[in-house]
Amino acid sequence: xxxxxxxxGGLVQAGGSLTLSCAASGRAFNTYNMGWFRQAPGKEREFVxxxxxxxxxxxxxxxxxxxxxxxxxxxxxxxxxxxxxxxxEDTAVYYCNGGSQWPSRMPGKYWGQGTQxxxxx
Length: 121
Prior knowledge:
- The chain is mainly beta.
- The protein has strands spanning about 5, 10-15, 20-25, 35-40, 45-50, 60, 70-75, 80-85, 90-100, 110, 115-120.
- The strands form two sheets. Strands 2, 4, 5, 6, 9, 10 and 11 form a seven-stranded mixed sheet that branches. Strands 1-3-8-7 form a four-stranded antiparallel sheet, with no helix packed on it.
- The protein starts with a strand and ends with a strand.
């Protein structure tokens, strides 16, 4: 079981940066693949980034590749999403996710509550 809490969202100007954090609690966090998904109003929740349980491999959606970086610190039970060069189309609620089957982009069953990212032009 994992419990996930997302923080770090906010309002940022286009071209700016934000870093989202996900604090996890539960047994054996370092055995879970982790990721981030996002959902904009009227749209399906979509894959953003995924990191393997050991942190050795990362995947990104094409729309964010080169701009976003996912990382994890298994000693601290945290996952982060550094978002640079933000665009208005990045505006969404971002959700931390755990337990996916690598390398699937389908989510695992554990979700954070979501944190709002709004990018103004």
